[in-house]
Amino acid sequence: MDRLDSSDEETQARLVATAMFGRLGRPREIADAAAFLVSEKASFITGTELVVDGGQCLQIR
């Protein structure tokens, strides 16, 4: 996945406009999900995906 160039304000505004929560995800939110998956709390989770996209995959296009 390509990193969003935050200097491209038009692209960023378009992404925010279609975002379910009205904002882009924060790096910390992705890091928290990754930290959970490697923690003891996730020790019984196998063979699944944890989608951290703020509901973007639920939107009908």
Characterise the protein shown here:
The chain is an all-alpha fold and 61 residues long. The chain has one domain (4-58). It has helices at residues 9-18, 27-37. It starts with 8 loop residues before the first helix and ends in a 24-residue tail after the last helix. The mean pLDDT is 87.
In short:
The protein is built from two helices and no strands. It has helices at about 10-20, 25-35.
Q: Strands, helices and their partners?
A:
Layout: H1 9-18, H2 27-37
Q: Give the low-pLDDT segments.
A: none
Q: Give the proportion of residues in helices.
A: 25-40%
Mean pLDDT: 87
Tally of contiguous helical segments: 2
Strand content: under 5%
**Large-scale geometry:** elongated
Task: Provide the gyration radius in Å.
Answer: 14 Å
Main structural class:
mainly alpha
Major β-sheet annotation? none
The secondary-structure element order is: HH
How many DSSP-defined strands? Answer: 0
Separation of termini? 20 Å
Number of domains: 1
